[in-house]
């Protein structure tokens, strides 16, 4: 059972590219349609945008991780054609300057998660990527990277209730295991009180 990643991306000559790829044809079709819709909507608002990066190889992901530009080392959502970086155009050049909250609003209304809040605007995020959008919740990423899940054409991360909730609670939700205090790791002392 194939999907856009197995059928198109993994067969593409760019698959191993260490260079940035901005070709929209390497975005999964629903993601591509939504991204192009965002660019058009921004244009109608008088904001010129550029599809800066679509597909990303594992080699490039590793390079960006080393530079501190991403917190995902081996693979990211870009690798699956489900994420896109969209920047402003200023004087014909890509620009990351200024407020990108409009992109968050357009992403939300399009059904894409925005890297400015990762789909959870009410919590403070340690990593913010305000030019990034993706058609996948943060909680789904592990399954995506494992090859266990790929969105169908109608998947909407904002309707992915259980997983969206998980992504909201994830940073503080530690597995409920008994925490050993340093003292309890020491061998029982003969002076131990009873
Ligand atoms: Zn990105």
Terminal CA distance = 63 Å
Name the beta content range: 5-15%
The helix-and-strand class reads alpha+beta
Query: Which regions have little confidence, pLDDT < 50, spanning 5+ residues?
Result: 170-194
Output the helix-strand order. HHEHEEHEEHHH
Radius of gyration: 20 Å
Helix fraction, binned, reads: 25-40%
What ligands does this structure carry?
zinc ion
Overall shape: it is: globular
Secondary structure tally, helices: 7
- How many DSSP E strands? 5
Features of the shown structure:
single chain; about 190 residues; alpha+beta; five-stranded antiparallel beta sheet; 7 helices; about 30% helix; about 10% strand; disordered C terminus; binds zinc ion
Structural description of this entry:
- The structure is a single chain.
- Helix content is 29%, strand content 11%.
- The protein contains seven helices and five strands; from the N terminus they run ααβαββαββααα.
- Strands 1, 2, 3, 4 and 5 form a five-stranded antiparallel beta sheet that branches.
- Mean pLDDT is 86; it is low at 170-194.
- Bound molecules: zinc ion.
- Zinc ion is lined by residues 78, 83, 85, 129, 132.
Secondary structure topology:
Elements: H1 4-7, H2 29-44, E1 49-53, H3 58-66, E2 83-90, E3 93-95, H4 101-110, E4 113-114, E5 132-134, H5 141-145, H6 161-169, H7 182-185
Antiparallel strand pairs: 1-2, 2-3, 2-5, 4-5
The protein binds zinc ion.
The site of zinc ion (ZN) has 5 residues, from strand 2.
């Amino acid at each position: 059972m194939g999907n856009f990643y197995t059928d198109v991306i993994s067969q593409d000559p760019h698959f191993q590219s260490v260079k940035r790829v901005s070709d929209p044809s390497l975005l999964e079709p629903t993601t591509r349609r939504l991204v192009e819709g965002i660019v058009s909507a921004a244009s109608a608002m008088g904001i010129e945008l550029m599809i800066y990066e679509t597909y990303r190889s594992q080699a490039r992901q590793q390079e960006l991780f080393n530079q501190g530009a991403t917190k995902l080392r081996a693979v990211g959502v870009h690798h699956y054609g489900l994420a896109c970086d969209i920047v402003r155009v200023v004087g014909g050049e890509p620009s990351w300057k200024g407020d990108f909250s409009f992109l968050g609003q357009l992403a939300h209304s399009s059904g894409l998660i925005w890297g400015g809040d990762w789909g959870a605007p009410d919590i403070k995020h340690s990593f913010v990527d305000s030019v990034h959008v993706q058609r996948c919740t943060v909680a789904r990423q592990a399954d995506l990277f494992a090859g266990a899940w790929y969105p169908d054409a109608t998947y909407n991360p904002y309707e992915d209730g259980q997983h969206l909730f998980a992504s909201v609670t994830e940073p503080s939700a530690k597995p409920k295991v008994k925490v050993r205090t340093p003292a309890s790791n020491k061998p029982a002392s003969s002076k131990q009180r009873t």
